[in-house]
Structure formats: structure tokens, C-alpha cells
Amino acid sequence: MGALRIRSGEARDRRRGAGWLAVAMATLGPGCEQRVRSFVDGDGGAGTAGGGAGGGSGTAVGGGGAGGGGAGSSATGGGATGGGATGGGATGGEATGGSATGGGATGGGEAGGAAAGGGDTGGGGGTPVECSPDEARCAGDLIEVCGSDGRWGLAGCAGWCGAGRCILPPSCRLGETGAGETCGPERNQPCCASPRVPGGRYDRSNDAASPAEVSDLRLDRYEVTVGRFRKFVEAYPASRPAAGAGAHPAILRSGWDAAWDSRLPASQAALRDDLKCNPGLHSWTDDAGGNELKPISCVSWFVAFAFCAWDGGRLPTEAEWDYASAGGSEQRAYPWGNAFPNSTYAVFDMTGSAVVGSKSPRGDGRWGQADLAGNVWEWTLDFEGTYPQPCRDCANVERGSARVIRGGSWWQPRPEDLSARLRTGWDPTDVTDALGVRCARKL
């Protein structure tokens, strides 16, 4: 029987009609007419599985099964695949041929599979190659790595994906203190996750008189934990920021001012003392212990700014923080929606802070941020004052005394104190056991 490369029963081949059929039958020779007709009609043929050492033949025409067989057998691969056989002939294919040791080849599909010995491997094709081994790419915030089988698979990353690699801020690097920790109620989420917040327009504090627009950003899923903050403390004072660090990319004079250096603790010992601002209620411990997954507290605005800058991020503007809390244009009353707060949504009216994300996912915001209401208040970049107008990536960084804090905390007695509308100011040098920080980052 002559050799002829036959594609799978595609529409364009079927349209070639009787002329193509005549040429195919003439080329194949007597006895093959019915099998060619079956192929042209699109049924893929029956495909037989021969077998045995006596050299039985296996024929798979079109998309049917693959013939088995022993030494000296031949197999006509269905579709674009030819199978090679030890001691026997094989009909060549358009794409990658399958291999067989002493037996039939696998038919069907664009890429042939492998068959050892005889057998009746079904048609349908082998696994297509998607990528080159060790190649990497981002799938949203996840990272995919190409395996030895040429298929993409998810790889672990405690941070987020950028340019095909796992991005980990200093507070989260593997093998070091604070790294590898998992947060959330089931301890199965990386504490260092920083989900994307797509930019857009909204009304600040749900007030139509104060429209604003923010650009895309990342906002950390969780408030900074004691475990993550420990890295900053251990590196201090070398972890203090340089002039200009932690700036918002669209806001002039929003980076670290060297004149603020004097507002930071003079030494690591002084910083540790500041973090213990209220015995029995502060979350910091000098040695790692049971509070590692609680939010850091007792941090001044200057220390919070310094941490975020050191960690590769920055303080969010009040507009960015408010945008995430309100769910952008959804204008939510609370991060989770409009349902009135209770203990299943947020940590409030308690005697101390809780593990970050303890109310997830029920209390999470639109883009996955936890504890935007309750647990600890959070510093923002802005001075307290009248909202700037117009506001496109705006912040009040020019004048004022108090800095804006948002979100409420564990000691708020009233549920309405957790509203996305609530804002207040706090002395940037002052510390309290109910005030922490969450960092923003560029995409």
C-alpha cells in the first residue's frame, strides 16, 4: 500500500470532493476504498488492535484507535501522526510522530503518543507542548512555570508575580524571620499578598460633592503583621529610608523628607521600647511568639512610612485607601457591602486585636483586602483637612498637623464607626495599641 499523508477529517479536506477521493484510492491501492470513504465521511474509521508476536497488523485510519501488534507490524496513524515501530513500517505524519517498541503506534491528534509493545491506545492525540521547560509567566498575581512535560503549572509564591517572577518584599523573603507565614482564618494565604486594585472614579466618603479618581495600584491584603515588622526592627537603624523613598509616583514631594529623620527612634532599642506602648494591649514582643500573625501596633506615622518604604512600598493616599474600602464605584457603606456590621464581618468592640484576616472572606473588601474595617486603624499619607479638588491621584501633603487614619479598630464600640465614610486625624508622632499600617505598591 502506497504512503499518503492524510489530515484529520477537516472541513477543507471534505470539500475537495470526489476528485480527491479518487486520487487517494488510487494511491492507496485495492482494498482501501472503504477506509478512505470512512475518513472522508468524518467517522474516523474503526481502528483495529492487532497483536501478538506473529506480526499482526493494526490499522487506525482517521481519528480512530491505534493498532497494536508485535514486531514487524505497521500502523497508519490517524490525523497528523505517524508511529514508528521497531522492525516494521509506519506511515509518516505531518506533526511529531509517536514511537513504539515492537508494536503499534498511537494514532489521532496533532501529536503522536508513545506505545510500548502491543496495545490498543485510543485515538484523540497526545499532549501538546505549551512551553519550554523552566519558562515562567504571570497568570494574574500567580506565577506559572513550565514543567518537563511542556505544560504550564502553578508555582508557589508568597508574594505576587511580576515580569514572570515571584516578587517578595524584604519583610517576606523566604528563609528569614517573618517569611513563609500564612494568614487568614485557615492559615492558607500568604501574609505578603498584595492584590491589584484597578483604578477608577468614585465619590470620596460616599459624598457626591467630592469626586475623585485613582490609578491602578496594589494594596496589601493584610495589615502588616508583627512577624513581618520584626524584619524591619532587626535591620534597624539601617532600615531607615533615604530621602525621597516611599514616594507616590504621581504626587510631588510625597517621598521621605530627610528632615523627618529626627522623628524616628534613635536606635533599635528605642524602637523596641516604642512598640510596647501599652503593656497588655500592644502586639509587639521582643522575641517571636504567639502574636506574630497579629497586626503590628504602636507605630507612629513616621515609623509606618519608614517601614513601607523599606519594604518596597509606600503609605496609601487617603483617596486610595477609601477607594478600596468603598469598592470603588460600588460605593459600599462597608468594605464587604451594605450589611450592618456584626462580629462575623469585623473585629470591633473587643479587648484587643485579632489575627489578621480572621474575618475573611466574609469581611473582605471588593478586591480581597481584609480588615479594612476594624482590628486596627491604619495610617494614610495625607494630612487631615479639606479634600483637595479636583482629585486625580491626589493627596494633601502640603500642610496640616494631624495625619488621616482610617478603618476603625478593635476598641470601636459602635458598628457605625466602621463605615467607609469615617475619617479622623491623629498626631503623627503619637502611638497607640489600636493603630497600625497597611502598605500600597505600584503595579
TrEMBL record:
<dbReference type="GO" id="GO:0120147">
    <property type="term" value="F:formylglycine-generating oxidase activity"/>
</dbReference>
<feature type="domain" description="Sulfatase-modifying factor enzyme-like">
    <location>
        <begin position="206"/>
        <end position="441"/>
    </location>
</feature>
<protein>
    <recommendedName>
        <fullName>Sulfatase-modifying factor enzyme-like domain-containing protein</fullName>
    </recommendedName>
</protein>
<dbReference type="InterPro" id="IPR042095">
    <property type="entry name" value="SUMF_sf"/>
</dbReference>
<dbReference type="InterPro" id="IPR005532">
    <property type="entry name" value="SUMF_dom"/>
</dbReference>
<dbReference type="Pfam" id="PF03781">
    <property type="entry name" value="FGE-sulfatase"/>
</dbReference>
<dbReference type="InterPro" id="IPR051043">
    <property type="entry name" value="Sulfatase_Mod_Factor_Kinase"/>
</dbReference>
<dbReference type="InterPro" id="IPR016187">
    <property type="entry name" value="CTDL_fold"/>
</dbReference>
